[in-house]
Protein 1
Amino acid sequence: MGSQRLAVTVVFAINGAALGSWAPRVPALSEQIGAEPGALGLALLGASIGMLLAALASGRLIERFGSRTVVAVSTIAACLFLPVIGASGSVLALGIALAGLGASMGVLDVGMNTAGVVVERRASGPIMATFHAGFSGGALVGSAAAALAAASGWSPTLHLTVAAAAALVVLGLVIRSVPGIAADTRTSVASPRAGGAAPARRVALWLLAAVALCSAIAEGASSDWSALLLVSEQGMSEGAAALAYSAFSLAMAVARLAGAWVQARIGPTWLLAGGALCAGAGLCVAALIPVPAAGFAGFVLAGAGLAASFPVALSLAGEAGKRTDDSGGERELAFVTAVAYSGFLAGPPVIGGIAQLTSLSVSFVAVGLVAALIAPAAIAATRALRREQAGERAATSGPGLPS
């Protein structure tokens, strides 16, 4: 099990490194293709759309082929698209390449989380957050390498080709240890709560999706708007303001490493609820107190508070689809992930619209309230899951059925 846990952590890190590799090169890519901000924004939208559409279809792919195969194929596809992004010569070419990368990473996201759920079940303990810490660590390494490549004068094509090659080598070293046997639906039986209704018809899954959605909106706002908030509202220099998101990311990575320990002691519901209140308070502090130190402290609180939301929501969604042979959860994971991606897609422009009508400070207060909504959604989701479990027990012990 140790080798599987390490392998899945490395796959999460590869995914994070891919994001951390291309995103910092957007200024160079914009100059390379001569794109205006509006046109560049449309091209970047391709990645989000690709991820959302692919996530919707990924559950059935994993059910049929297993998470190991899906992780391998989607990672290879993502690595093939990275050099294509670097070589793009027009807005259209960049948009198509980003859509392909987004689709590959959307499938990879669900595949690696499914593999993570399998390892977590075998470990009999909450370890999903540590996998997501691997993603955060990979993103930090990828972004640092991108900064070094840019400082060294590497073109996006050369840099992203080297990054893709390195990712493929690392994948080859660990892929055999990634769990991923496709479920045999002829002998594997889903529980009544998992198999009785499609994910979109289950209240518990909608509530877990709400947790992931609110987390995605808050995380997206912090990544896209934190520096501008501190520059425009608090008069901070651009260099110092850029470090705010670094502090947010570092706090999230550290909190995810500690998340398994905390969850084992207080349970997922109170971990999500406490983190939501911490994140909401942190974002409001950053927005309302015009002191640079308060801005940094607020984003550190937000990063730590949001750290568990996405991984715990996915872990609970996977558990809600568990089969008798410990497989299952693919469609449930895909459903929650797709809803969360809509937050990454719609959140930033909505926040920009609020800021246009009022101010960035007001928009971040709104984001703080969205983050705080994770708490009631998590409590309601836990109660809905308990009701489903009670219904399952009643169904299996009813008249004419073995108890």
Protein 2
Amino acid sequence: MAYILGFVTADGSISKRKDRKNSYIFNITSKDRDHLKNIANSLGSDIRLGLKNNGSSPIKNCSYFQICNLEMCLDLINLGIVPRKTYSLIMPSIPDEYFADYVRGFF
């Protein structure tokens, strides 16, 4: 899970849904579809992966998945994965024995 948290810190996001009160969307996007499948499976999710193919974007042919689970989103927020984290990221408290896994996931 420390590896996944590192990966989410680098490539994941949480967004507050404007159309629903107290609702969040957790999203991970990656060019490596198989890696994303493994992460979804590790989270115990059978969610289908979507495909982004935005020709005008520098990020082409990326896969993604989204989860609208309030409990999971609140747990991630408590760990520092907040909406617009690019501008306010705080290093989560990772136990020493899992820190290398977190860094590996991040990079």
